[in-house]
Every structure is written in structure tokens, then in C-alpha cells.
Amino acid sequence: MPLLEPGSPTDLIATTTAAFTERFGRPPRLVGRAPGRVNLIGEHTDYNRGLVLPVALPHATWVAVAPRADRQLRLSSAQQDALWTGTLDDLEPAAITGWAAYAAGVLWALREEGLEIPGLDLHVHSTVPLGAGLSSSAALECAVGVALVGLLGRSLEDTHDGVPLRDVLVRAGIRAETEVAGAPTGGMDQTVAVHARAGSALLIDFDDGARRHLDLDLEGRVLLVTDTRVSHELTDGGYAARRADCEAAASALGLDSLRRASLEDVEGLTDERVRRRARHIVTEIARVQRTVDALAQRAWSEVARCFLDSHTSMRDDFEISTDELDTAVSVAVEAGALAARMTGGGFGGSTVAIVPEERLSAVVRAIDAAFTQRSYAAPSHLVVQPGAGASVEAVDALGG
Ligand code: ADP
Ligand code: MG
User: Fold this and answer.
1) Which of 185, 214, 217, 263 is the residue whose CA sits 20 to 30 A from 88?
2) Which of 189, 205, 227, 245 is catalytic?
3) Do 266 and 290 touch, CB atoms closer than 8 A?
4) Residue 358: how many CB atoms within 10 A of its CB?
């Protein structure tokens, strides 16, 4: 059964280091790492001050970096052809284009936070699929951020102006994504990329910023992520339109966010589309809490119900699903998955399923067969053990 493997950290550090050395003619100083994520439940709730429950992937983005004596910046990626070059003076949102928005954008945002950014060379390598709803964007942002922290000789446990550096990295990643790349996402991805712990899901409450690590014991079941290979574009307007509808709903109710709205409130909204969007948010926030409780009680049929209702709500009320996602979800459940739903921002991307270990290959085969039968592109599958958050992986130990 071909699965998209995360790769071994030792090999990935070696690969990223070798590519850096090849490209820039000298070894890097260190390598930063940050993971992609799969969200178990709680979609589009982060920017509505709601709850989310993501898990960090073992798949991650690796960033090798070395400082320069001059003010030049050179950024390359194994996943993109274009090299981005500029100087420290070019670190301005309007001057940064293409994929570099997520990398040079973080350097800009960290400088805005008061960190000293030197001239540098930087090379990226990732095992997170791009544009698959698994947050390759925040993995890149946060890997650049931790690489910078390492380069400045700081520890992730340090503070900066009284703020934990981890939180500075989260904020810088969000600013790069929203203000430089122009994707108005809500902060879940960067938070889990920086704060995740291996073996745990991370419950984040975007009302007060509270985080709780939840032991994820699925009792003999595994997390199966299926990338439908329908690539989404979070900067193309659909995501922003959903966000605008949510804001319109809150404002029509005289609230500062939908977190304060009840189901009764939203059923009274007069605009039919805005009503459906708001209903998704209010019911989805409740489903995150129900899922957390059900996981704690090992109430598996309740977990299954929450996933199914979440998918239906995203398909019908929020309208962010696709035929490929709907197919992967229904076929997974027919083939023996306990629960399945689309995950991530939508308009393509991935599904997440909880699958009894002994049904795993049957579920994968059934999804593959259904996709072939419908002439969809072949999906790829990831089996996910919850991974750890961002780290500085190697400092001056690279033989450089
Ligand atoms: P997702 O975060 O779900 O993967 P996004 O649309 O938010 O999808 O982000 C994908 C974009 O992030 C890519 O199109 C590219 O610009 C950038 N990106 C992510 N990973 C890399 C990488 N390893 N190298 C270069 N650019 C990357
Ligand atoms: Mg993203």
C-alpha cells in the first residue's frame, strides 16, 4: 500500500543541508523544522473566535539557513523553481511575491516584531504536500521562523519583550500569510505548527487563546489522511468570501464574533446564504467540544456522528466541499472507517478518517478504486502519528 511517508529526520536534515551547500557553495549554519497539520474538527472556526482540534503531522518542512556578511537575501526551495533574491530593503509586503511571501514574509514580520534580521541564504525542503489542506504554508512560515531564532542564538523557550518567542513566531507566521501572501486565514495552522506535542491533539480556543494538549488514544485505530490532489488556492477569493459572510452575520446580530451567537440567533438571520454560513460556524464550534468530550469518554459512535455532521455542514451550509472530498468521505465509511470528514480550508485538499487498523488497506483500496472509476486523479494517502511542533534541529553540527 503506497503511502506518502514523512521521511526520517536524519535523512531530511542531510538532504536539505546537501541541497543548500550545492546551491550556495557553503554549508548552512543550522536547520529549522516545522510540521504540517491535519485538523480533526473545527473548520473556519478560528477566525470566528471558536474552537479547533488539529494534530501536527510527522510530515514537516525543513529550512537550512546561514547568515551573510552583506544585506543580501537568497531564498530557494526544492518544491519551487523560482529563486527569490533581494536585500533587507526589499523586506516589504508589496515587494515580496510568489512562494517567497510565506518565507521572506516571515522575515519581514519578525523584523516588525523587533528581531534583528541579518542578510542570509536559505533553502527549503518539505514532505508536506503543497496546497493539500495540510498547511504546507504555516509549516514553511514556522520553519523559517525557528531557523531565524536559531540563527540569532536564541532558544524557543526564550521571551522577546516579555512575549514567549513561540508566540512571536505564531504571530509572524499569521502576518506573513494574511498581509504578505494575502490569504486571510485565522491562526490555527501556525499555532499547532509551533505548539504541538507528539502523541497529542491540540485544542485551541480562539476566544481567549487557551491551548490544551489532549492525549490521542484511538484504541487500535489510525488517522488516515487522503489528499484528493485537487489543489486549493486560499488566496483566490472563496476563503475570503466565507470570512466576509461570517463577519456580516456577526454584525447583523450586533456581536463582535459568531462565538457569542446561539443557533436560535443565526436561524433568525434574514439573508439565506449568510444564515447557512453562520449555522455552520455555530454548530461546528459545538461539535469540536462534543468531539473532545467523546474522545475523552471513548464514545466512538459520538465521534463518528460529529465527523459526519461536520462534513455535511461544510458541504451544504458552508459550501466548501468538492465531489472528490465527498467521495473520499463516503467511500471511507462504507469500507470500514469509523469516521471521516473533509479537513482544512476546503475547495479541494484532503479528508481525515479514523480507521480501525485492520481496515486500513481495505479503505485505501476502496478510495483508490472509486477515484479511478470516476476518472479523478489518483489520491495520495498519509497515515498520521501525531507529531511534535517546530524545533531547531541541528546547530553547527553539520560538518560546516
Ligand atoms: P496549504 O497550506 O494547505 O498547503 P496554501 O495555499 O495555504 O496550502 O499554501 C501553499 C503555498 O505555500 C504554495 O503554493 C507555496 O507558495 C507555499 N509553500 C508551501 N510549502 C512550500 C515549500 N516547501 N517551498 C516553497 N513554497 C512553499
Ligand atoms: Mg495554508
Assistant:
1) 185
2) 189
3) no
4) 10
* Strand runs labelled E in 233-273: none
CA distance 108 to 116: 10
Interacting residues of 397 by C-beta distance below 8 A, sequence separation 6+: none
With cell 461546528, the residue in question is 284
Residue type present at position 212: R
Query: With contact defined as beta carbons under 8 Å apart, do 198 and 386 qualify?
Result: yes
Whose cell is 505548527? That residue is: 193
Tell how far the Cα of 133 is from the centroid of ligand 1, in angstroms: 10
Report pLDDT for 234. Answer: 61
Q: What is the pLDDT of residues 333-344, one digit of tens each?
A: 999 999 999 999
Report percent pLDDT > 90 for the chain. 95
Label residues 68-106 b or e (16+ Cβ within 10 Å = b).
eeeeebbbbbebeeeebebebebbebeebeebbbbbbbb
pLDDT at 231: 83
CA distance 96 to 84: 9
> Is the distance from CB of 119 to CB of 68 less than 8 angstroms?
yes
H-helix or E-strand spanning residue 280: helix 272-296
Segments of the chain with pLDDT less than 70: 233-235, 395-400
| All three cell numbers of 301 | 459512535
Which candidate, 5, 36, 131, 2, places its Cα nearest to that of 386? 36
d(CA 194, CA 138): 9
β-strand partners of 191? none
396 included as an active-site residue: no
Grid coordinates in use for 144?
Answer: 523559517
Q: What is the pLDDT of residues 65-85, one digit of tens each?
A: 999 999 999 999 999 999 999
- The pTM for the full model equals 0.97
Binding pocket residue ranges, ligand 1, CB within 6 Å: 61, 77, 79-80, 99, 102, 124, 126, 130-137, 140, 183, 234, 344
Please identify every residue whose CB atom is under 5 Å from ligand 2, which is an ion: 135, 137
